């Protein structure tokens, strides 16, 4: 009897196709990797394409920490129309001639949405309000408020402004933008708020995520490519790319894996999760500094 091949431990960087939910991609990957232990580091809307980081087997323990990293997007914002969902998937709720909006006005409005801002997520987001997902409440026609949350938009750049005409004949403007932002930032909420500030409404018509933390689009594979050949970034390489690295000797490695809280060098104070490597580059654990000592977040070695 042949033994079943062991699924690999590591990250898979997927170039998500449009029309798939993040859960659809996880389900596909379970089939490709032949294991139930697959998760993702932060969702991507069905309309959006691009980088979706998946963890297979032991690497699922990294995902919660990776989800907190910075993200980068390329997108198209249509000024002149609002939609129910703040993106092109939803029904249009208003149309306003946007042809008179100037580049100067766009730049001024974008400056207000850059830096540390308070953002109200889209009503059809997966945010939970009193334990119920916002999109579920919206679908059932409930009236409810979503509290604003602090997010950081490190950069919001307009590459191109194109005149266009919407299907209903309204003159609109399409902005090609790039955004670098903190985890939890909704790009379609930026499109909505930009349109609201300019007085013409706005929504997102296209979105491609080009980076999650250190993982970029050039390392991503489509589901078809992964079906042909499963490309997994080994867990040690993935951790070294995403977190500060702390190398320890064999004695400390043994103490750490036995649950002893080691003294941590001062340089790691306040850095969040730190990847600990033992002799021969073996990835041992993710820890964080707490009162000068290493508090274990997840053990791998």
TrEMBL record:
Pfam families: TruB_C (PF09142), TruB_C_2 (PF16198), TruB_N (PF01509). It comes from the Bacteria. Its EC number is 5.4.99.25. It catalyses: uridine(55) in tRNA = pseudouridine(55) in tRNA. GO terms for biological process: mRNA pseudouridine synthesis; tRNA pseudouridine synthesis. Residues 31-187 form the Pseudouridine synthase II N-terminal domain. Residues 243-300 form the tRNA pseudouridine synthase II TruB subfamily 2 C-terminal domain. GO terms for molecular function: RNA binding; tRNA pseudouridine(55) synthase activity. Keywords: Isomerase, tRNA processing. Residues 188-230 form the tRNA pseudouridylate synthase B C-terminal domain. The active site is at 45 (nucleophile). Responsible for synthesis of pseudouridine from uracil-55 in the psi GC loop of transfer RNAs. Belongs to the pseudouridine synthase TruB family. Type 1 subfamily. This is tRNA pseudouridine synthase B. It comes from Streptomyces spiralis.
């Amino acid at each position: 009897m042949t033994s079943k091949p062991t699924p690999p431990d590591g990250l898979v960087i997927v170039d998500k196709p449009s029309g798939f939910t993040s859960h659809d991609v996880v389900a596909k990957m379970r089939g490709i990797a032949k294991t139930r232990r697959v998760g993702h580091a932060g969702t991507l809307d069905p309309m959006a394409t691009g980088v979706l980081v998946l963890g297979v087997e032991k690497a699922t323990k990294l995902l919660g920490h990776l989800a907190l990293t910075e993200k980068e997007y390329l997108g198209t914002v249509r000024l002149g129309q609002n939609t129910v969902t703040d993106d092109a998937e939803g029904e249009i709720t208003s149309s306003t001639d946007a042809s008179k909006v100037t580049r100067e006005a766009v730049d001024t409005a974008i400056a207000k949405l850059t830096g540390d801002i308070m953002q109200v997520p889209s009503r059809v987001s997966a945010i939970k309000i009193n334990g119920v997902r916002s999109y579920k409440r919206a679908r059932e026609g409930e009236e409810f408020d979503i509290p604003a949350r602090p997010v950081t938009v490190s950069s919001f750049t307009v590459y191109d402004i194109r005149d266009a005409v919407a299907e209903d004949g309204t003159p609109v403007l399409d902005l090609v933008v790039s955004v670098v932002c903190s985890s939890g930032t909704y790009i379609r909420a930026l499109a909505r708020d930009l349109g609201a500030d300019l007085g013409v409404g706005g929504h997102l018509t296209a979105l491609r995520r080009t980076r999650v933390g250190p993982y970029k689009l050039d390392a991503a594979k489509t589901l078809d490519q992964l079906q042909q050949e499963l490309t997994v970034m080994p867990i040690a390489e993935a951790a070294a790319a995403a977190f500060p690295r702390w190398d320890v000797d064999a004695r400390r490695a043994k103490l750490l894996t036995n649950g002893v809280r080691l003294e941590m060098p001062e340089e790691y104070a306040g850095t969040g999760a730190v990847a600990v490597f033992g002799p021969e580059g073996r990835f041992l654990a993710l820890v964080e500094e707490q009162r000068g000592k290493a508090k274990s977040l997840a053990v791998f070695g």
